[in-house]
UniProtKB/TrEMBL annotation:
Residues 1-171 form the Macro domain. Coiled coil: none annotated. This is O-acetyl-ADP-ribose deacetylase. The lineage of its organism: Bacteria, Bacillati, Bacillota, Clostridia, Eubacteriales. One of its GO terms (molecular function) is O-acetyl-ADP-ribose deacetylase activity. It comes from Butyricicoccus porcorum. It holds the Pfam family Macro. NCBIfam families: PRK00431.1-6.
Amino acid sequence: MKQRFFIEQGDITTYAVDAIVNAANTTLLGGGGVDGAIHRAAGPELLAECRTLHGCKTGEAKITRGYRLPAKHVVHTPGPIWRGGHAGEEQLLENSYRNSLTVAWENGCRTVAFPSISTGVYHFPLEQAARIAVRTILDFLDEHPDMERVTMVCFDDQTHWAYDTAAREFLD
Ligand code: AR6
C-alpha cells in the first residue's frame, strides 16, 4: 500500500496542504508557540474569523480558512494541559488528533499536517504524546482510505526523534 503517513522536521506554517492543525488554547484567540507562528503567518483575518467561533473545548476541533498561509485551512484544537496524567490527558490528546482529522475530512481536506500537540507549553510528556498521536493517525488512515496524506511536522530534533521512534513501534 502507498505510504500515507509521514514524519518530517520543519515549520508547519510553510506547508501547502489542505489543512494544517493549530495547537491552540480554548479561547482560539492566539498565543505563543506554534499558535503564535500560525497567526503571524496567516495575518489578522485569521484572528477575525477565530473571534466568530467563540472558543473550543479541550480535545475538540474547529476549522477556519488559511488566509495568507500556503495551507487552505487551519484546524484549531486545544490539546490538554498536562496535570500529572490522572485528569484524562491521554484521552483528551487522542480526541484532539481524531477530532482534527474528522473536521478536516468532513471539509474535504485530504492532506493534513500536525504539529506536536500539547508537548510545548502544555508539558505533555513527549514520548507518551508521540505514541498517542501515531496510533490515532494510523487508525484514522485505516478507517479512511481516501485520506491521502497526514504529516507530523516536528519543529526540533528531540520531537522528530520521539515521533520516529513511536512510528517504528507501530509500523514494524
Ligand atoms: N511549526 C511546527 N511546530 C512548531 C512551530 C512551527 N512553526 N513552532 C513551535 N512548534 P506549543 P502546546 C512546536 O507550546 O504545548 C500556545 O500559547 C513546539 O516546538 O506551541 O499545545 C497556545 O495558544 C512544540 O513541539 O503548543 C496554547 O496556549 C509543539 O509545536 C499553548 O501554547 C507544540 O508546542 C498550547 O501549548
